Amino acid sequence: MTNILLSGMPRSGTTLLTALMDTRPNTVALNEPKWQYDWAADNRGRGAWDFVEYLEQDFAQTRRKLLEGTPIPERRREDGAAVTNYYQRDASGAVRDTFKVIGFTRKGLSPDFALAMKHNGLYMGVLPELVQSGKFKVMTIIRNPVDVIYSWTRAPIPPAEGKLPGASLYWMEMEAMTLSDRGLLERQVQLYDMLCLRLQQLEKKINVIVYEALVREPLPFTRLFGIPDEAAHRLVLNQKANIPDTERYRIEEAVNKYGKYYLRYYPYR
Prior knowledge:
Layout (H helix, E strand, L loop, with lengths): L1 E7 L5 H9 L4 E5 L2 H9 L5 H21 L3 E5 L10 E3 L5 E3 L2 E5 L9 E5 L2 H5 L1 H7 L3 E6 L2 H8 L12 H4 L3 H7 L5 H19 L4 E4 H6 L1 H7 L4 H7 L9 H14 L11
Parallel strand pairs: 1-7, 1-8, 2-7, 8-9
Antiparallel strand pairs: 3-6, 4-5
């Protein structure tokens, strides 16, 4: 049995990574199980190691439910297929969800199937403890800071306000930074940079995938992790972020001014 945690920067490709992992034979990959965040929020007084213990138990319970055919509340397309992006803009420019929460099941799983679950802030907030526990394989993804931060401004998510509530539950430095009186863009850059530093500190023990490398040449990655070629061709689209020049310059200037740890993965100024 393999338990896999999927995480990274919000809007960096974690949903795409989850969709790809869901195509592996004898594998289920779940998107941001709400009950895990609810447990953490309802037990704020408990520490990171309590959450790690709970998570191990939850993986075992979820595995049993899937084998029994018990529906799991899951963000999917209406036909049960995995989504690669939670949000899209319609012709009017309005943001709409691309998913529905459905009762998800999967037939034909063997008792030792691989179970992956994705959370961004929540898992990043306890990533050192999750790695130290040795109970999970960890896969993360990172994307260009300008593209990520611009994407935050275009989606109805907490980083649009310079916050990452899931991480702040267990990561006191993150909570202090997001509650500071710094300007919004400075907090967004600092949020991104703190996540970069956390990945750097653990990169010898986890998989860190660079989004740009994945979409430019997906097959080396997908074949390494047992993902069918067909899924790579169908799901991975090498699309450039369409960022207005004024916004790109504004974000680049802030990244250069307030960030430093991103340089490990994106060494430009």
